[in-house]
Amino acid sequence: MPRVLTVSGSVVVPIAPRQAYALIADPAGMGRWSPENEGAVVRGEDGAPYPGMVFDGRNRRGFVRWTTRCTVTAAEPGERFAFKVRAIGLRRPVVRGPIATWEYRFAAEPGGGTRVTETWTDDRRGWPDAAAWLFDHVVTSGHSFADFQRRNIAATLRRFAERCAAPAEGPGNRR
Questions:
Q1: Helices 129-139 & 145-165, crossing angle to 10 degrees?
Q2: Which of 13, 22, 40, 84 is placed for a possible disulfide with 27 were both Cys, Cβ 3.0 to 4.6 Å?
Q3: Please, which residues bridge with residue 106 across strands?
Q4: Whole-number Å distance between alpha carbons of 122 and 48
Q5: Could you read off the pLDDT of 57-71 as tens digits, one per residue?
Q6: Rounded distance between C-alpha atoms, residue 46 and residue 41, angstroms
């Protein structure tokens, strides 16, 4: 059976596309929704994301921790945010090569709110299917990366939707 290289999921949240984008397109804050990511450190100029921005993501699955080096490829407020994972390592991202692309799209819903679509693409195209299958099943406890990421996407979007539906926080109604 051929490898599935792209999976995605969507959720509708009760906020405007630009608000949803602002929350998602913050690499340091991604750990608020992701079941694996614990945030990120921007390398170089911080602030609003821009194409070419580089950040190191801190990740954890069970007791295993690792770091990824990512480059923002799209930063279109209220429309699209995307980045490519280009290196990985335990403490520092030292193993270089195409790993994955993550993309978030934001579309206004006719009745209000925003449809947020998260997509993961496996960029390990040069790997033989058998090698990818073996690696994937070892690091995901018996699953393909596509199945594993499908569950991660569902968890991320559920957490994001719960946060967006929660009453505004404190002074100034921050979200």
A1: 50
A2: 40
A3: 116
A4: 26
A5: 999 988 888 999 999
A6: 9
